[in-house]
Amino acid sequence: MTVSTGNATAARQEPRGRRRERPGRLRRSFGAHWYAWAMVAPVLAVMLVLIGWPLARGVYLSLTDATEANIGRTIGVNVIPSTYEFVGLDNYLQILTSAVFWDKLLWTVIWTVVCVAAHYGIGLALAVMLNRRMRLRSLYRVLLILPWAVPAFVAAFIWRYLYNSDYGVINGMLKLAGLAPVGWLDDPTTAKAAVIAVNVWIGVPFMMVALLGGLQSIPSELYEAAEVDGAGPWQRFRAITLPGLRRVSSTVILLGTIWTFNMFPIIFLVTRGGPGSETEILVTYAFREAFTGVRNYSGSAAWGVIILLMLVVLAVGYRRTLRAQGDPW
Amino acid sequence: MRRLLPAATVLAGLTLAVAACGGGGGAPASPAPSAADPTKITGEVTWWDTTRPDSEGPAFQALIKEFETAYPGIKVKYVNVPSDQAQNQFQTAAQAGSGAPDVIRSEVAWTSQFASLGYLQPLDGTRAVDKPDDFLPGPLSSTKYNGKTYAVPQVTDTLALIYNKRLLKEAGHEEPPKTVAELKQTALDVKAKTGAAGLALNVDSYFLLPFMYGEGGDLLDVQNKKIVVDSPANVKAMQTVADLISSGAAPKPATTDSYANAMTALKDGKAAMIYNGPWALSEIYQGKEFKDKQNLGIAPVPAGSVKAAAPTGGWNLAIYAGSRNIPAAYEFVRFMTTQKAQADIAKKISLLPTRASAYSDPAVQGNRDVAVFQPIMDTAVPRPWIPEGGQLFQPLLEGYQDLVGGKSPPADMLKKVSDQYHGIMKDWS
Question: Which residues form the signal peptide (chain B) (predicted)?
Answer without folding.
Answer: 1-19
